[in-house]
Write a structure and sequence with these properties.
The protein is of the alpha+beta class and 140 residues long. It has one domain (13-139). Helix content is 35%, strand content 36%. The chain has 1 helix and 4 strands, in the order αββββ. It has a 4-stranded antiparallel β-sheet, covered by helices on one side. The longest helix has 49 residues, at 13-61.
């Protein structure tokens, strides 16, 4: 008497469900990494644009022979920087100039430039703000 030969070909339903679950989790993880990478790239471009803007404003404000022209106090303005046509940085620029007499006998002005901008919306829908500060001293 011959025994019938049974062949087990294919996958069981449990194996298919496990494989689909693993694939789904992997796809979700990859999408999350790509999204975070894009957010980081935008943030880096904004910080680069802010840094360039602060350096430019400082050089413009504190050029040669400008010590007496720089008014002491605080000024605010709104700035927009287009960082290559893709990302635009819009924020508030604060310029603070303080007279520092601790470096006798030469008067020194402390120039602080701070830019604040809206970075992105977080998971709750709130807008995250970022800022960058440049602080330098100039002597008479």
């Amino acid at each position: 008497m011959k025994h019938p030969i049974t062949r087990s070909s294919g996958f069981s339903l449990v194996e298919l469900l496990v494989a689909a679950s693993i694939l789904g989790i992997t796809v979700i993880a990859v999408v999350a990494v790509i999204r975070k990478s894009r957010d980081i790239q935008v943030s880096v471009r904004h910080r680069q644009a802010a840094c360039i803007l602060l350096e430019y404003r400082f050089e413009k404000l504190c050029g040669p022979g400008s010590f007496r022209r720089i008014p002491v106090g605080v000024t605010d303005s709104t700035v927009t920087v287009d960082t290559d046509g893709t990302y635009t940085l819009t924020g508030d620029l604060e310029t603070r100039v303080e007279l520092d007499m601790t470096h006798e006998p030469v008067p020194v002005k402390k120039v602080t430039l701070t830019i604040r901008w809206d970075e992105y919306e977080n998971e709750e829908g709130a807008v995250e703000r970022d800022s960058l500060t440049l602080e330098k001293w100039i002597a008479e």
